[in-house]
Every structure is written in C-alpha cells, then in structure tokens.
Amino acid sequence: MVILDGGLATHLETLGADLKDELWSAKLLVEDPSVIRRAHLDYFRAGANVAITSSYQASVPAFMRRGLSAAEAENLILLSVRLAMEARDQYGEGTVAASVGPYGASLANGAEYTGDYDLDEDGLADWHRDRWHILAGSGADLMACETIPSYTEARALARLFAETPRMRGWVSFSCRDGEHINDGTPLKEAAALFAGTPQVITVGVNCTAPRHVNSLIGQIQGKPVIVYPNSGETWDPAGRRWLGLADPVEFGAAAAEWHAAGSNFIGGCCRTTPEHIRQIRRHLRTG
User: Fold this and answer.
1) Of 38, 58, 117, 182, which is least surrounded by CB within 10 A?
2) Is the pTM of this model over 0.90?
3) Is 207 annotated as a binding residue?
C-alpha cells in the first residue's frame, strides 16, 4: 500500500502563500522555495510515502513570460524536484514523483477540466517534450502524469515515455463521471493505452469527485490502480468560495473503501490537507 500526499497548493495557501497566478504553486519556485519544501515535509510527517513536486504548472514558456531565460526556467523546474528530495531526505524516507500537469493547465481557461484543446497529438507531444526531458533527468524517482483530461494527450504522453525508456511513472486522468475522462473518452479505453507499457507502474484518476472513484476503479484493467481525488467540494464562482465540507475523517473512511475496491496507491488532490493524509493512514492501518 502506497500513500500519496494531498493538495500541495491547498497546503501552501494554508501556510500563507498567495497563489492567484498563472503559475499557481510554481510561482513560489521564484518567490519562496522554502515554503514548498516545508509543505512537502508536512505531508511526509502526516504519513505520505510520496511527494509530488510543484512542477504541475511549471514550463519553460511560462517562466520566460516572466522575463526569465530558458536556462533559468530549466533550473526552476529542476528546483521543484530538489525541494521535494530535500524534504524526503530530512524526513528520512519516501519517493519523489515529478508532476507533469496537462497542457490545459497552461491555458488558464479551464481546458484542463474539459480536454478541449487546440493542439493535436503531435503538437501536444512537442509542447510537453522540453519539460518532460528536464524532469526525466532531474533525479526524481517517478513521473506523475496527472489530471489528464484528454485521450489525445494521453497518447502524446505515451510517446514521451517511449523516449525515456528508463523512467517509470504513472498516468492519472481527471474524470467527469464514473465512466468517462473529461473529454468524454471511456476511462477503460484511455487506461488501456498503458496496459502494455512496463514503465507505467499504475494508472488511475485524480482531481475527480470522490463519489465517482469506486466506479472508476472498476474501469481499469491490466495495471495497479492509483486514486487521489479532490475533497468533493465545489467552487461557487459568483460568491468566490468553496461549498460543502471536506471532512478528513470521512475522506479516510472512503479511502479504505477505495483500497477494498482495488486501489493500492491512494492520496488526495485539491482541497485535501495533511490531516486528510493522516486519516487515510489511520483508516488503512485499522480498516
């Protein structure tokens, strides 16, 4: 059983960071790297076995739009891995997974939740390639391809795995219901892309409502299953607030159900905290 961390940006905001920026948590690679290290360490101390880096929204073009050079941008992407490794070393054990966020995250228009892209498979492979090879050479233990909303983007990522045959990782999709990823492709079909890829050690879902997870686990065949859903809260854009209550104890109890349904890699995504990870650890130990 492997326990992942929770929402990195969520915890960074709890620690006082202002992430209202196109770079999201990656802005702190420029402004305050130490708080990223602290957030990773808090998750390890809460019971996580895996830290997912702050590179989700980082890219060379995004940093260059801030006036940085390509070399400086590459160094910041490498820094995202180094901070997680330093937290791991301070804690004494753990795994570092380099976050590979979707192309849609760079558009800042919600496309990461729909898969409605203006690039084809070749274009998506080209867009991901620079960051992919930087992270593949960073010393990270795994590549975490996460919140993938598009079948076409998944095909592009499969090509990049083939370009780095020694790099292992996972692919997790964002899903709109209990059967389909966000672009409407059946999860069963999207997951099957990686069934014959030994480098991909687990396939699953993240940034998805917890109520869909049990059904989605049943759609995945041929690989161990990874799940790290969001808290289940919904964003009210008019009131600019989150609606609902994300109870860590209930989340931990749900994690025990996901484990029983077939998932051996479990954590949290948006709006989950170190307390959610503690409860996952507690319920999986006692469930």
Assistant:
1) 38
2) yes
3) yes
